[in-house]
Amino acid sequence: MLETVIATLPSTMGACSFDILTTYPEADAPKIPVGAPARVVGLQPLRLALVEIPVACLALIARKLRLPLGWVRARACRSILDSSVVVDVAGISFVDGRGIPITVYNTLMTGLPLLLGVPTVKAAQALGPFATQPNRLLAKLVLPRLAAVCARGSRTRDHLNTLQLSNVTNVADLAFSLDESENLPNAVKASLASVGDKFVVVMPSSVVRGLYESTGADYVSAVAELIRSIRAATGLAVVIAPHSYRVGHPEGRMNDGPVCQQVAAALSGDSMVVGIDEDLSAGELRRLIGMGEVLVTSRFHAMISGLSTCTPTVVVGWSHKYREVLDDFGLAEFGMDSTALSHPEEIVEQVQRCINNKANIEAQIQQALPAVKERSALNFSIIAGVAKP
Q: 122: helix, coil or strand?
């Protein structure tokens, strides 16, 4: 989503620069596209809660008293005050069942620019449901005060309607506006050469691993067994790749590298199963996915790349955010819950359906894609429309 904003927003707003507020400044800085007018600003959770929020509260008082804010020097607050608009690209937030710490973090991150009086847009993301406390209370505190909330699908819109908001627009995901890279790194091309032209791309998820293993099951073994079953049923090679990767860091919500390495190691005896251990850009990942016959993924934006490249896509996910996007293409039946990993034959059946009906599915995606891309572009019009002059 971030790469898409940097690449696409200037075409709507004109020349602009970007400050990227991130929990992982050291890991994210090298990922900034070469030559992009962007800088990374560290905003780790403790700093957010103990430094930036208190400063922002003082700034709110100063604004009410019509006092100047030149004294504000906390790096995130200063960055926000100097900006024309804040774009929140959380992807998913204010969702029941994610736990109080994440809900509070969502509130502080989105609340920071609100305290500072800077127009803020929640760009395309999944939100809700809001049936439990404190999620509902905090969502009602924050969301009505945003300049705009972009609902990424009908189910999110239904959830937002329960809050009776007046600032919601239906859009599609930002990443539908991302361009595919023209090439892949030489190391990746060499790995792909060893398995031929036809393969299934599998992209596991550390998030789904946590959910699946909370029941006492073994995620790595389950994914490895799924890949063995795909190989046996289709005869196709399998390429395993992380869609979210932080090289040198332990496995976490934004790092699928370690779990992909473990799955690949469990299948090391099969020469037609290849693990890609590279930190690819979003455009390069899209290129890799588009080369596959079928994509099997638990990562949301891998699914977006599958649909964007008209690649038949089978999703093993965990929230409404997957199916509401698949709904736009009439492919909701290809979205399954992570519990399906305990019955790999169900997932394999869907993979076989994709292979057997590949041309029809590609045509179905192609037909729906222009309208989805148009709604994706709406995000940028909304952002430009609320930005300060």
A: strand
